[in-house]
Amino acid sequence: MTRYLPIVLGILLIVGLTIPQIQMTDRLAGTNVSAEELAILLEKVTKNIGDWHGEDKATDPHVRKVAGAIGAVSRMYRNSRTGEQVDLWLIVGHARDISFHTPDVCYPSAGFNARAPENGLYPMQFGDETAAAPFLTNTFLKEDEHGQQLLRVFWSWYNPEEKSNQGKVVWEAPHNARWHFGNSRALYKMYFTSGMHDPKETAEASSCVRFARDFMPELNKALAAVYGGESGSESKPAASGNKPAAAEKATADSTANTITAPAEKSAKDVAAPAATTATESVPAAKEAGADTGGGAVDPLFEKPAASKAESK
């Protein structure tokens, strides 16, 4: 009998470790996001905000499944005055999926390379500019026979199950989202994506920043209406390990190869980013009719537009 003891003990150990893991990850549960909530979400995310006008984009069902998206809004917004374009990807689902598939994981699988070794941290200001929400950001480069595609992506999460938010819509950008959000069954994740004309373009100069200034207040109102809370303007302290995106310009000039990402200043002890982190001024938008958006198409959700080199 004693010769079977190690086998029995091994089985008991595996079972003993598996049960807590299932409970911690909520692996056997689905999501508590109801169909009614999803319908309200899709209906309330407005298509028209000031000069920005949205057009829904088709999403591959396989992409939604991989992303864990129980509900999704995929939309391209174009500014009728400046011609800028920004892609929105807003999804909701279980944290075990929503927290994992981030741009620095997904974009390389689509042939892109992250230009900075670590993601930056950017305080996205909106509304009357007294409100700010932390977003992670990085730039991604793809070069192939069609030419070069250079994108800036911002992303953040909102957890409506977090009791400490006291019913307010609070966006967060933790360094380790999987650990931070645990087994939340209804987690939102949002991307803003836009094309870049200049490899040295800073986060502050991105079209996404100008879009967020108009879009975020309306989105927060819609989410607050779904969950019966407040469209609060608070942001939680960001987890350590992220770098402030505002440091990009300071290092861009010292970068020998303009295709390589400018190194960002280390800020491992950084707390919630304040509005003063951004040191550069946003360049004025081009005259009406000028296309400053670059016709960016999010490569994860539909075929990228042909580059200028290909169109010639």
Give a brief rundown of this model.
The protein is α+β, with helices and mostly antiparallel strands and 312 residues long. The protein is 27% helix and 23% strand.
Strand content: 15-25%
State the end-to-end CA separation.
Answer: 79 Å
How many runs of DSSP E, i.e. beta strands? 11
Helix content: 25-40%
Question: Helix tally?
Answer: 9
**Backbone CA Rg:** 21 Å
Major β-sheet annotation: 11 strands, mixed
- Summing up helix and strand content along with how strands pair, one would put the structural category as alpha+beta
Number of domains: 1
Report the uncertain regions: 18-30, 246-312
List keywords for this structure.
312 residues, alpha+beta, 11-stranded mixed β-sheet, 9 helices, 11 strands, globular, disordered C terminus
Question: What this model shows, in words?
Answer:
This protein is of the alpha+beta class. The chain has one domain. Helices cover 27% and strands 23% of the residues. The N and C termini lie far apart (79 Å). The C terminus is likely disordered.
Write the layout of secondary structure elements.
Blueprint: H1 5-25, H2 35-44, E1 48-49, E2 52-56, H3 61-67, E3 71-79, E4 85-93, H4 95-98, H5 103-109, E5 113-114, E6 120-126, E7 131-144, E8 147-158, E9 171-172, H6 177-181, E10 187-195, H7 207-227, E11 243-244, H8 248-252, H9 308-311
Parallel strand pairs: 6-11
Antiparallel strand pairs: 1-2, 2-3, 3-4, 4-10, 5-7, 6-7, 7-8, 8-9, 8-10
Helix pairs in contact: 2-7
